[in-house]
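Recall the central idea of this unit: under ordinary conditions, the amino acid sequence of a chain determines the structure it adopts. In this exercise we apply that idea directly, starting from the sequence alone.
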Amino acid sequence: MDVKLPKLGEGADSGVVVSVLVKEGDMVAKGQTVIELENEKAVAPVPSTAAGRVAKVRVKEGDKISVGHVLLVLEGGEPAVQPAPTTPSVKPRKAALVPVSEPEPGEVAEEAGEEAEPAGSDADVAAAPSLRVLARQLGIDWRKVRGSGRGGRIEQADLRAYIQRLTKLAAQPKVASTPSATSAPAVRTVESVDFSQWGEVTTKPLTQLRKVIARRMSESWQAVPRVTQFDEADITGLLELRKRHAEAYKAKGANLTVTCFALKAVVATLKKHPIFNASLDEAAQEVVFKNYFHLGMAVDTEQGLLVPVLRDVDKKSLLDLAKELAALAERARDRKISADEMKGGTFTISNQGAIGGGHFTPIVNLPEVAILGLGKGALKPAVVNGKIEPRTLLPIAISYDHRVIDGGTAARFTVDLAAALANFPENEVKL
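Accordingly, the structure predicted from this sequence is:
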């Protein structure tokens, strides 16, 4: 029997094989990881859909594969049999009772006005029999719904999200096909240049991760009218706090860094200015305010930029954040971070202080509306109470989506953030 690449969820329909974990002759259990696939910004484990002995390995490291590609050929096992659908005791008109509320994590294959090409047959899709019956009653093609469950299994939340998406698309006004001044710009023609005509060159193909970074940065640049607000925060007192308590944190196995303080200061400022902890829902023409604080941390790795998310920062102590931040950054550098750990962020911090440099203009991490860039703190002369004193000043830069946030609001946010860093309360540092 053939073991094929299943749907693994959003962004995992294709990728590059980074490791093959089995060889011919090995016994494989159902659910055992057989390869690791680099897709989007993560390395995802791919489980076997059946058990048996490996007769043939059909992939190797570096192969580019997509859903349905044969990974292994097994012998001596039993193929996974899809249970025959049974008719549940649900009346047809109850199908209308599927709640169409806020979108759930399951994602629809269509993008604004476009439909994905159905791949495979309806029988290839993993879903509960009751959901299959419900989908048939509603006339839904399963092959256009992306599952968020294990191995791409379609859950009830995915069906709700699909119906929600269809409802929004149906409600959108039709756009005239006649060209106008507001029409989308023509696609840029890309031409290859032979640089070797002027001298010796070396080429290196873009990695899957670099392609994703390039695409997302381009999307943000084209979609967001951004403005960057600059300032400097006096962190002289904050550094004194750090020096006083660093040993106590070290004894607990944690490194008390400026980034840890920044996480807490940012959350305190976001609570004062909730518009910075929001997202713009363009389809619904609504601003979505989030009552949770999941902060993304830009991590510089050899493969490229990754942004793992620290969840519920407002509910964690400085010690907890110091430990979690170090562990998350290490796993990101080792490419052991999962795709789910890079989703759901509400605000992002990019700290270049350890590298050096001052102010810079970070690009907004969609679908967020703002991002904080931190430079390297430097000792400078500053006026304090009418006297010139040496103070450590930290460059801060807030890039924001001007469709949602006005300049005055951004200026107030920046001032409050600088104050939160300058006047960090010691009671939040003490163990």
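The two ends are 58 Å apart (CA to CA).
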